[in-house]
Write the structure tokens for this entry.
Amino acid sequence: MIKVSPSILAADPLNMERDVQRMVDAGCDLLHVDIMDAHFVPNLSYGPALAEALHSRFTIPLDVHLMMDNPESYLDTFAKAGAWGITIHAEIPGDVPAMLKHIRDLGLNVGLSVKPGTPVESIRDLLPMVDMVLIMTVEPGFGGQKFQSAMLEKIRTLRTWGYAGLIEADGGVSLANLPDLKAAGLDVAVMGTAMYKSENPARDMEIIHAM
Ligand code: DX5
Ligand code: ZN
């Protein structure tokens, strides 16, 4: 079953509680929390205070995606804020394996993400350290971009290698491209615009869960 992780980036910041409640009521499995530092990506979003507030208000697991150049000093902070899992990027400076181990030692779901230009071959050696690979299907930084179907090949490649962990796709994911993603081997669909702008997210999630 494909799990759905709606990205808070597409929620109305002035009505975050209402919009997240709508996703929870619709039956989402996780909540995708996009954190941007204006260095790794050309945009700023939210910080640990929002994750903490969401955690105190909702029981839905928080799927924290750190689009940050220097996430190491924030791993403990997001763990304390109530993250279910933390995903860092393969392209960042610093000791990525040590950070993955740090996330593991915090007892969280360990995620590693690759941008569209980064081949999965570059993370092959790290796969035994992770629970989830996040394939970016757009350039990270902004919601509402067009899905890059060439990224499907990365999912197929991971499965060809026998990688049995979770695979998540993020960026432009919708009901239209989910059948292809599912056929390639996807487990978790991050959906920003497609879910928050949907007239009937409960029906959409039902369709996705039945795929
Ligand atoms: C992009 C973020 C995504 C984004 C997805 O940098 O990581 O999570 O919010 O939004 P949509 O689904 O609108 O492409
Ligand atoms: Zn994301």
The radius of gyration is 16 Å.
